[in-house]
Amino acid sequence: MDRWLIVGLGNPGPEYAGNRHNAGFMTLDELAARAGGRFKVHRSRAELLETPKAVLAKPLTYMNLSGGPTKLLSDFYKIPVERVIVVHDELDVPYGAMRAKLGGGDNGHNGLKSITKSMGSRDYLRVRFGIGRPPGRMDAASFVLKDFATAERKDLPFLVDRSADVVESLMERGLEATQNSFHALDLNISGPPR
């Protein structure tokens, strides 16, 4: 069976662990827990976990250079771009919402910009973990590098779980079915998609 490459975006190190920018890492940690496995450092400059269905990867190069490890792993495991799923934080999706899409621009997200450049294509699947816009005049770059707010943290485990559900749905059911199930859900609607 052809495997998937699931790449969670974030920055390595404990000082970044709770940042909004690390929503991709958080989702990959949940997927690893579901698989009953542990990440190990790989020579591709990523933490890696191989499962029967997917290769889970958390690049250790910091967000802006995520493309190098992604391309190396795609080549090493011979996984085509259409079987790559990138999980990332998204300013233009409200907090509590998840969106799945294929391709598109990077919308100023340096991790996506790096992956698109390294892969030579933007035609990979994305799980967009909504973090919403910064309050007031706060700079977007500062906002993504701050931890989730106290009020947000109470819902965060639920949202990370939902983000992992979106990834699994993409692998098992495809893009359209996943969009139909998850795009109608938001933070105020609990329970599994129908």
TrEMBL record:
Which catalytic reaction applies to this protein? an N-acyl-L-alpha-aminoacyl-tRNA + H2O = an N-acyl-L-amino acid + a tRNA + H(+)
- Name the Gene3D superfamilies on file: Peptidyl-tRNA hydrolase
Entry EC no(s) = 3.1.1.29
What Pfam families does this protein's entry cite? Pept_tRNA_hydro
**Top EC class of this enzyme:** hydrolase
One GO biological process term = protein quality control for misfolded or incompletely synthesized proteins
- Assigned GO CC terms: cytoplasm
List the Gene Ontology MF annotations in alphabetical order: peptidyl-tRNA hydrolase activity; tRNA binding
* Catalytic residues in the record: 21
Q: Which UniProt keywords apply?
A: Cytoplasm, Hydrolase, RNA-binding, tRNA-binding
**Which residues are listed under the site Stabilizes the basic form of H active site to accept a proton?**
89
Which PROSITE patterns does this one have?
Answer: PEPT_TRNA_HYDROL_1, PEPT_TRNA_HYDROL_2
Q: What is its main location?
A: cytoplasm
Family matches, as InterPro entries = Pept_tRNA_hydro, Pept_tRNA_hydro_CS, Pept_tRNA_hydro_sf
Q: Where is this site: Discriminates between blocked and unblocked aminoacyl-tRNA?
A: 11
> SUPFAM superfamilies attached here?
Peptidyl-tRNA hydrolase-like (SSF53178)
Question: Can you say where in the cell this protein is located?
Answer: Cytoplasm
Q: Where does tRNA bind?
A: 16, 62, 64, 110
Quaternary organization:
Monomer.
Family membership, please give it. Answer: Belongs to the PTH family.
Q: What does this protein do?
A: Catalyzes the release of premature peptidyl moieties from peptidyl-tRNA molecules trapped in stalled 50S ribosomal subunits, and thus maintains levels of free tRNAs and 50S ribosomes.
- Entry's NCBIfam families? pth (TIGR00447)
Q: State the name under which the record lists this protein.
A: Peptidyl-tRNA hydrolase
Q: Tell me which species this is from.
A: Nonomuraea soli
